[in-house]
Model the fold of this input.
Amino acid sequence: MPRRRTAQKSLSQPSTSARGTQHGSEEDDEDVAPPTQNQRQNKTFSDAEHGQHVANAVRYILAADQFKTPINRSAVSKAIDCHGAGFRTVMNSAEKVLQEVFGYRMVNIKNNETSSGKFILVNKLQDSLPYMTFDKEVGDRYVLLFLVLSHIFMNGEICSEASLMKFLLKLGIIEEGNMLNELYGNVMDLVTKDFVKERYIRAEATENSETQEKEFSWGERALEELSPRAVMEFVSKMYAGDREMSSWPQQHDRMQTLEQEHHHDGDLE
Done:
């Protein structure tokens, strides 16, 4: 009986050589194991690696901006294979390059006052609208955009779908029951879909659920690239004799308020 207990004990415990072999195997596994996500995120880059990541990020962002829709930071991170703290450093450098070399500023998109992880590029030179430099086909679209944004601002910074339709009818851009225009194509699709995706216009459903109409206001890109003064100067010139901007007291006061806020924000930066 004692001998059998001893035998059981020897079978239940690995020998010293077996333990040594097992331990050595674990060390080998650690040597070849891929880096963890935490290790990848905390990786530090050489100057050359950092510069390459920045160049790749800038290239990706400029290409994505051609679609004029918000760019997801996680998509940039995945595209350039850079993560965590290293990615934040790369994006800070990329933002500086975009601003100083290409004249673009990155503006974060918020949903209900919280960050969405997305951003857009806006022209640093306010009022330098794309239609001034783009080819004719694209330029025509942005002439329409400028008209619509002007109407929204002069209407109290928000307008209903019915008000916008009436405005476009008055200009002869659309006809009653016909949204197609030889120059712009489907005008309402362009305004309510394309310009909304590009963040020039914000569209929100009205509280009246019966009509299912939308209300339109300036989007993030318009707020960054266009000034109310440019709008009011444009509108005043549309009237014979260059009507004074101050003859629209409500809009004129709002313009001055926004300009003061803009200068204050600039001083804080």
Observations:
- The beta strands are 71-72, 104-111, 114-123, 159-160, 180-181, 185-186, 201-205, 214-218.
- The chain has two domains: 47-123, 136-263.
- The first helix runs from residue 2 to 12.
